[in-house]
Design brief:
It is a single chain. By secondary structure, the chain is an alpha/beta fold. Helices cover 37% and strands 20% of the residues. The protein has 13 helices and 19 strands. The protein has helices at residues 18-32, 82-92, 109-121, 137-140, 170-177, 187-196, 233-245, 247-253, 285-291, 308-315, 345-357, 359-377, 379-398, and strands spanning 3-8, 36-41, 52-54, 64-67, 70-73, 76-79, 126-130, 146-150, 157-160, 165-166, 181-184, 202-204, 224-228, 258-262, 276-280, 294-297, 301-303, 319-322, 339-341. It has a 7-stranded parallel beta sheet, with helices on both faces.
């Protein structure tokens, strides 16, 4: 089995969200497969406003989790850079100090030297460069391990109900060329990369899930919808659009309908309309899915990438209504068996009402979600290609 380093230029696991979830689902899968998985964070201060955090992820379960300028005890991580801590204190006191944080695309010589030494000294065989760390690929090319670029989001490619963009910057292509394997998280991104990088080994690493299919627990007579989201710009714009454009039609047609908004996105909500419950973060997300007949993912803008909320809803076997932003453009009918795709408020509302009114249709879409899950969102579907590449690396190394 391979000795694998997941390299991050930022401690993504400081908070729960789609980014760390994407990384750690892959890491947990590889760990269960017998690979020796380690984490390295090249700068604890990048993008941070606090010098410590307690991770919601089991970072202590990996063979090691180290930071160049931080220390970990269990799941608690603290910064060891006194300049950063002083800057945080100064801000608390209302004074200013010169910025010490590096930019997202700026890697110091010390930072690069540290990760190169880690890779060489410990003899890592595979380095998975996560997100912004993909920029380091040209600097790590001769450090020993095979390099898998895991950018998640391909820069320059966005989706929206208005207009899409598709202009991958040259700096990213240069970084991708330095990788042995470059991964996209949806087929549409993979096709764009393959076209822009002839001869490159492009694979898809999706958002793999374990099946959590559960029987529906009807409460209050049913007619319950669910929206789950962290407090991100895309979630804020999505729920605002839904409440303005779709919810009035739903509640007028189904006065007993209820929408539960779960997650930190509720922080951005003002007074909520009738029938909407601003729940916030919960300890048992599975319980929310068990009680929801329909999951809504009203995304009106976003990156051309896999959507955690869509994958999660499907993994619970729930019927879903989303927009085309929630679907892989390479597979526009990807979610048809599990629900509906609608890009205007009235149609979105009508599809949700249709599912809530018709128990036969709802059951059909719930069964269909299981088929969609196996085809697009299971761990085998999401990670099979990258696991095959790692197996090939092992075979070559042992020759």
């Amino acid at each position: 089995m391979a000795l694998i380093a997941f390299i991050q230029s930022y401690p993504y696991e400081a908070d729960y969200g789609g980014d760390p979830e994407y990384i750690h689902r892959l890491a947990r899968r590889l760990k269960r497969r017998g690979h020796d998985c380690h984490f390295r964070v090249t700068d604890m201060t990048r993008g941070r406003s606090m010098p410590f955090f307690r991770s919601p992820y089991a970072i202590e379960s990996y063979s090691s989790y180290r930071m160049r300028n931080g220390v970990r005890i269990g799941r608690v991580v603290a910064c060891l850079d006194p300049r950063f801590s002083l800057r945080v204190l100064a801000r608390k006191l209302g004074t200013q100090m010169a910025a010490t944080q590096p930019g997202a695309s700026e890697f110091s010589e010390v930072e690069v030297a540290w990760i190169r030494k880690e890779l060489r000294d410990l003899g890592f065989q595979v380095a998975v460069l996560c997100f912004g760390a993909v920029r380091m690929a040209p600097m790590l090319r001769d450090s020993g391990p095979r390099i898998i670029g895991l950018p998640s989001i391909i820069p320059g490619r966005t989706l929206g109900l208005g207009q899409d963009t598709d202009a991958i910057p040259e700096w990213f292509l240069d970084a991708a060329r330095a990788c042995d394997v470059i991964a996209a998280n949806i087929d549409d991104d993979a096709r764009a990369l393959a076209q822009a990088l002839p001869g490159a080994d492009v694979v898809v690493v999706g958002m793999g899930s374990t099946a959590q299919f559960a029987e529906l627990e009807l409460m209050d007579g049913g007619q319950r919808l669910l929206f789950v989201g962290n407090d991100t710009p895309f979630n804020r714009s999505g729920i605002a659009w839904f409440l303005a454009e779709a919810w009035p039609r739903i509640i007028a047609d189904l006065p007993s309908a209820r929408l539960r908004v779960v997650g930190r996105v509720v922080q951005s909500l003002g007074p909520v309309p009738k029938g909407v419950e601003a729940v916030g973060p919960v300890g048992d997300l599975a319980a929310e899915y068990r009680k929801a007949q329909v999951v809504v993912a009203p995304l009106i803008e976003g990156t051309a990438s896999v959507k955690t909320k869509v994958a999660e809803a499907i993994s619970f076997g729930r019927a879903i209504v989303t927009t085309r932003v929630g679907v892989d453009p390479a597979h526009p009918n990807q979610l048809d068996l599990a629900g509906f795709v609608a890009d205007d408020g009235n149609t979105f509302a009508d599809r949700a009402i249709e599912l809530l009114r018709d128990p036969v249709l709802l059951a059909e879409k719930s069964r269909g979600a299981r088929v969609v899950f196996e085809r697009f969102f299971s761990e085998d579907a999401a990670y099979g290609a990258v696991e095959e590449r790692i197996r090939r690396f092992e075979e070559i190394r042992k020759r």
